[in-house]
Amino acid sequence: MIKRIPVRRLVRDRRTPERAMAQPPEEDEHSSPTHQGYIRTAAQARDVTRGFLASLGASNRTEAEAVLLVVSELVTNAERHARGVTGFRLEAGPGSIMVTVSDASTDPPRLRHTNAFEPGGFGWYLVQDLAADVTVEIQPHGKSVRALLRALLPLAH
User: Fold this and answer.
1) Ranges 29-33, 77-81, 135-139: which has the least confidence
2) CATH of the domain at 142
């Protein structure tokens, strides 16, 4: 059984939460293969992501950095809190990039209440702030976290 959990998102003004669900874009020629068993570190995931963005002709540096930051945070969270990455996927759709990171834990991500003067604890906040939509899908043997980022991509093929 698969359980979808809507993620409570922080709106930019940080006053009221909203619910958000993301549906992956339709499969097309701009989907990457799933990298199961290959991605173990955030550095590897960023390298794959840079290649993926380059293959799409992504030229907006700010958008590319946002995608890289979300990838890095999701993979780092899987490494630190869920015994590592079990799946990694990037998909490009019209005006969007979908990042999916899977791991073996069935525990959903949670916001950490952190001290602004101590390191760590800000990754999940960053993912929610940078992504237009975030979904956590709980499966019998783990979960998949999907973050949809808006991007102006020249999808000419």
Assistant:
1) 29-33
2) 3.30.565.10
- Do 56 and 92 contact (CB within 8 A), yes or no? yes
Helices (H), 17-122: 42-56, 61-81
* The predicted structure's pLDDT at residue 133: 95
- Cα-Cα end-to-end distance for the chain: 38
Residue in the structure block whose two tokens are 């990694």: 88
CA distance readout (Å), 42 to 68, 139, 152: 9, 23, 24
CA dihedral 76, 78, 84, 88 (to 10 degrees): -90
Q: Which range has the worst mean pLDDT, 47-51, 107-111, 120-124?
A: 120-124
pTM of the prediction?
0.75
- Does residue 18 lie in a domain region? no
* Residue 118 located in a structural domain: yes
Is 67:149 a contact under the CB 8 Å cutoff?
A: yes
Q: Name the nearest CA neighbour of 56 among 87, 91, 99, 24.
A: 91
Identify whether 19 is part of a domain: no
